[in-house]
Amino acid sequence: MQSRPQKDVVMPADEQVIYPAALVRTLDPAQPTGEAILVRDGRIRAVGTLAELESYGPSRVDDRYAESVIFPGMVEAHSHAYSGGLWTQTYIGYYPRKDPSGTMWTGCTSLDEVITRLQEAEARLEPGQPLRAWGLDPIFFPGQRLDRHHLDSVSATRPIFIMHQSGHLATINSELLRREGIDRNTTMPGVVKDADGQPTGELQEPPAIALVKSVPAMSAPFDGSALGGFAADACNHGVTTATDLGNPYLFDDAALAEHREIIDDADFPLRLSLFHLGGGRGGGGDLAASSAQLAELMDTSSDKMHLGGVKLFLDGSIQGFTARLQEPGYLPDDRKGVWLSSPEEFHAAFLAYHSVGANIHVHCNGDEATELFLDTIERVLAEVPRRDHRHTITHSQLSTPAQYRRMRALGVCANIFSNHIWYWGDQHRDMILGPDRAKRMNAAATALRSGVPISLHCDTPVTPLDSLATASYAAERATSSGQILGADERISVAEALEAVTLGAAYMLRLDHLIGSLEAGKFADFAILDRDPLSCGPAELRDIVVRGTVVGGRHFPAAG
Ligand SMILES: [Zn+2]
Questions:
Q1: How far does the centroid of ligand 1 lie from the alpha carbon of residue 458, in Å?
Q2: Count of H helices and E strands in the chain?
Q3: Model's pTM, two decimal places?
Q4: Of 23, 250, 275, 525, which has fewest CB within 10 angstroms of its CB?
Q5: Cα of 62 to ligand 1 centre, how many Å?
Q6: How many angstroms separate the alpha carbon of residue 375 from the centre of ligand 1?
Q7: What is the pLDDT of residues 359-385, one digit of tens each?
C-alpha cells in the first residue's frame, strides 16, 4: 500500500483526552467555537473552555494541536476512489497536479508536450506492456485533436489507451483499435469516424469506451492499493469522509470483503461511503435483484464503511458537448448531447432503488437532465411516497432557478460542481455556452436562496480532491485566468465551508455522525494552520492542512 500515514499508538477506549487548540471551530451554530475538544473512544465528548472540559472527570491533555485550528473533517460527496491508483499511469493533464505522496506533476500545456511526455513514458515500459495515460484535456488545444495518428507516432506496436480529463472520452491508437476489432463497420454510437469512415481513435462515453477489453478501463479488477492512495490524498486535504460515487464491485463478495478489510482497519485514515454503480451505463440489468441486494448491504455498514447509496447517470459532460441542454443549447451549434439512460430505463431504476430505501445520487450536468430527473422523482414519489429521501442531483451545473424551486418542493439536494468555474469557466463562457449561461453555471447562491440543501464537489480524478479549494471556487467564482464568472452566484465563505462539511454529510445521510464538531459525533478533524472562517475566498486555497484525526486517531499530512 502506497503512502500510508504513519501508525499511531492505540488509545484505551475509556481514556479521555483533551486537545487544546489555537481555536476549535465547530460549524455548530449552537456552540461555534471552543478552546479545546474532549475525545473519548473515538467520539467527541465535549467542546468548551479548558476549565469546562476538566469537569468531565479524569483526562489527559495532549497539546499537539495547541498551535493549530481544529476544524470539522471535510466531507466529499462526489469522488472516485480509483483515482488513488491512477498515478501508476502517466499524467498528461493541462494543470499541474499533486499526487498522494505530495509530488507535483507539471501540466502539459500543448499537444506537443503531451506527445513528448507519452514518448518518455513509452521508453520506460517493458516490451508488450500497454501505455496508459490520463488527464488529456482537448479543450485547451482548440483546432487540434489528438487522434490515433498522433498516438501511432508514439508506438505503432504497443496498445495505447488515453483517458480524457472529463472521464467521458478516451483515445486509443491503431494497434489497440485493431486488437479490439473496432473498424469502419463498428456501429456503436460514440466511436468517432473520419471523413473516410475510419475510426479516429476517439471513443465517446462509457458504452463506446467499454469496447476496449484488453486494456481494462471502466471495468478493471478491484485494486486495493488504489484505496490507499485515495485515502492519503484525502488526508493531505483535510477530508475525513469521502464517497466512491459509483463502485462496480459491491456485488462481488470477494472484492467487497477486501474493501471491508482495508477500510475498517483503524490505520486507514478515511471513512468511505460506497455507492453502487447502478443503471445508466448501458442498461440497469436485473433491477429487482440488484435493488434487493443493495437493501441487504445497507444493513452491513460499519463506522468506517457506509453502504446504501446508488449512483445513476443521465447525460454526458458539458465540455465534451455531451450534456443534455434545454433551449437555447450550446453556443457554437445545435448539438444535443447524449442520454446515458432512456427516460423509461431511468424511471425503472429510480423506482426500484427508491422503493428499497436507497439514497440515489444522479449525474445531471445539463438542465435537460435535471428536468428529466425532476419529472421522474415527481412520478416516483407519487407511486411510492417517502419522506426525507435526500436524493441528490450531482453536478447540477446548469440547473435553472425554476428547477431549484422544484428541487425544494420535492426534497431534492444539489451537489454542485463548483470546481468547473475555476478549471473550465473561461472555456464555458467563450466556447461552449456563451457568457449568459456560463455566469449562471453551478448556481450555489440560487440553490441556497431557493432553500435547497447543497454540497460542492471535486469529482476526482476529474479535478483534485481539495475541499477548501472547492469551497473557494464557489465563494470567489474566479476562473483560472482570474476573471469573475457570475458574481451574483457567489456564496459566503461560511456557506461554502458548511457545504463541504455538513452539507455533504446531509446528502449522504450521515449528518448525525459527521460534518460538525458536536458531542456524540465521531472525532473527525481537519488540522489547519489558520481559521478558514477568517479567510477571504481566495485565501481558503492557501490554508495549510497539517493532517487529520479520524475517530480519534492521528494522521499527519504528507510532507
Ligand atoms: Zn463522478
A1: 8
A2: 17, 24
A3: 0.93
A4: 23
A5: 39
A6: 22
A7: 999 999 999 999 999 999 999 999 999
